Amino acid sequence: MSFTTLKFTLNGEPIEIAVSPSDMLVDVLRDKLELTGTKKGCGKGECGACTVIMNGKAVASCLVPALKAADAEIETIEGVANGAAHPLQETFMDLGAVQCGFCTPGMIMSSKALLDDNPQPTKSEIREAIAGNICRCTGYVKIEEAVEAAAEKLREQR
After folding, report:
1. Of 24, 81, 98, 132, which shows the fewest CB atoms inside 10 Å?
2. Which pLDDT score, from 0 to 100, does residue 86 have?
3. Packing angle between helix 87-94 and helix 104-117, nearest 10 degrees?
């Protein structure tokens, strides 16, 4: 099997790692870099559990060939907290938007990509941003409320 050196930025740190042409980004993150916060759910891009932010956009990392991440800026759930919980993490906990937690990293990453781009989203924009993330436990009302509350906290911090 042939390997290629992949270079990218992960959670603000430069990464250089050997990958095979068949490796998917989710597998590199979880298996090679041991960042298990990115969940591996359906493997078909339908559940959103593997969502990461790549070059400012939420992507299903199970659909991204690792080599497509060359020179990219990638952020995972492990990079969201910077010494303290991110407002999204706080509001998800405070408002009961988590139960089993399997979808939570992907939900937070999709929500963060939205808030990074749009600090004052409408309910409709929040729904659209998390539409690719499946939650079977909480439903979406608490999650939408948590994203709205986090947006307000972030605006107050600016």
Report:
1. 81
2. 97
3. 130
